[in-house]
Amino acid sequence: MTPADIPTSPNWSFRADEAARSVTRLFGQRLFFLPGTHIAAIVRPSGRLKNLARPWHYWWQAHYVDCLVDTGRRELGTDGRPGGRFDGGDRPSAGRLASRLVTGIRLRNFLTVVNNYYDDMAWLALSTLRLENLARDSRRKAGRRRNARVLKSLTLQFDSASTDDLGGGTFWSKKRDFKNTPATAPVALYYARTGQAARAQALLDWLDARLFDPEQGLYRDGLRMAPGGEVVLESAIYTYNQGPVLGALLELGGEANLARAATLVASVARSLTLPAPLTGRSSTVLRCEGTGDGGLFTGILARYLALAAADGRLPAATRATAAALVNDTAEAFWEGRRVLPAGDPLARKGGRVLFSIRPELPARDTCPAGAAVELSTQLQAWMVLEAAASIAAKELSHAIVS
């Protein structure tokens, strides 16, 4: 095969690096000025101490770890040897920042990784597991004992929260009155990735039996145990809930799970999208769900759609649908970005670009000059760009091999 035969696409790796540089410089800081730590501010512009006084968003930080691991994977390359660092040779690698961040999360969370919400802990477990795999593949020893302790501690939490109450599933919080997709799905994915296939399958089967909406082909939010023993269905459909279900189905594999995964991708394309203009053409992008916690939702879905796009066990049409959803959403975020001028207060903090909170609208409308910018929304765009970069890398690898 000659270079001319290799398919061309936007340089998604460059674009993902640009997002990584902007987010880490704009939001990243040491925790309490402690060396060897990293933590993200929740909003900018805002001072260091004011950010530490804000509400603690544990699960935003967990997804920050995941984004850094994505970037670290690209730094590592395909041959297992370190390549160029995303932010230059004089700055820490993405993997090192991620390791410092896990330390920062533990310290900020009062010297423990345990909190009151099992979904929060599941996200940190998934990202720490990926960080551990990155450390192993890059032959780094730093942080691995800590990673093992974190994963052991969190696994015990999931074991205690995944009970027979309501027929199965995982509790959302330590109040133990609500079992939902936000907790059950990432715990199922964690079990699947740590060799506990039977437990993972049981959780997926419970989701399918109790929270799957056959008309929409999507998973509803959860079952709440009301006073008096009544069980109340929370029927809301959220984008991010579909992501870890899809990831767990793919991780476990098998004919039934893969068929459910294909159905889920088709349902996402049908029900969780909207039209958006792109340069020279119209497109369909994933819908986003606002700011705050909702600012992360669609990025999470895109992460797992990228896995579906690269999974050769799925039908070609399913893979193409998943890839198009990720790539068009990433393209819309990129086209709609706002480049920060040198005099902007956020640029003085190190920010380079800002991304919109909604791919169908430009950042100049959703993040105008002078407005506060939340970490969650910028992590979301970074996740989507990393998802597109992962698809492009798989396609390039396949083209070279074939």
Textual characterization of the structure:
A hairpin with a 2-residue loop joins strand 8 and strand 9 (281-286). Mean pLDDT is 93; it is low at 1-7. With 402 residues, this protein is α+β, with helices and mostly antiparallel strands. The protein contains 15 helices and 12 strands. The strands form 5 sheets. Strands 4, 5, 6 and 7 form a 4-stranded antiparallel beta sheet that branches. It has a two-stranded antiparallel ribbon with strand order 1-2. The radius of gyration is 20 Å and the shape is globular. The protein is 55% helix and 11% strand. Among the domains are: 1-9 and 272-402, no CATH class; 31-161. The chain starts with 11 loop residues before the first helix and ends with a helix.
Topology, please?
Blueprint: H1 12-27, E1 28-29, E2 39-40, E3 43-44, H2 48-53, H3 58-76, H4 94-108, H5 118-137, H6 144-161, E4 178-180, H7 181-193, H8 197-210, E5 212-213, E6 218-225, E7 231-237, H9 239-252, H10 255-271, E8 273-278, E9 281-286, H11 294-309, H12 316-335, E10 338-339, H13 345-348, E11 353-354, H14 363-366, E12 373-374, H15 375-401
Helix pairs in contact: 1-3, 1-15, 3-4, 3-5, 3-15, 4-5, 5-6, 5-7, 7-8, 7-9, 8-9, 9-10, 9-11, 10-12, 11-12, 11-15, 12-15
